[in-house]
Amino acid sequence: MTDKLTGTDRDEALAPLLANGWTVQDDRDAIHKEFVFKNFVQAFGWMTQAAIHAEKLNHHPEWSNVYKTVQVTLTTHDADGLSPLDAKLAKIMDDLARTA
């Protein structure tokens, strides 16, 4: 089980993500971001790459895809909130989007 992010560890983990467009959800301890790509193929390709990383981390996003837009929500259900895994996967997703 992964521990929930708290205190300064949480602030330090979230700061670069929030600066890069992630938002903390009001109704639960989760982060959310909308990724918009040039077209469906690029969006789906990004999702495929992200899925491979998620599987390696054994940490899977809540996400949906409509045409060129992918909505992503990250939280760690076992920790009942945000954990270091969420911050790590969010950074990977951002890095993949920059090269998509």
Q: Can you put this structure into words, describing what you see?
A:
The chain is an alpha+beta fold. It has three helices and four strands. The longest helix is centred in the middle third of the chain and has 18 residues, at 40-57. The mean pLDDT is 96.
Care to count the β-strands?
4
Shape: globular
Give helix and strand order, one letter per element, not per position.
HEEHEEH
The major sheet is characterized as: 4 strands, antiparallel
Order of the strands making up the biggest sheet? 1-2-4-3
Class from secondary-structure proportions: alpha+beta
Low-confidence stretches: none
Rounded radius of gyration (Å): 13 Å
How many helical elements? 3
For the record, give the distance between the C-alpha atoms at the N and C termini, rounded to a whole number: 32 Å
What percentage of the residues does DSSP assign to strands (E)? 15-25%
**Average pLDDT over all residues:** 96
Helix share bin:
40-55%
Short description:
The protein has three helices and four strands; from the N terminus they run αββαββα.
Features:
single chain; 100 residues; alpha+beta; 3 helices
Give the SSE layout.
Blueprint: H1 7-19, E1 23-24, E2 31-36, H2 40-57, E3 62-66, E4 69-74, H3 84-99
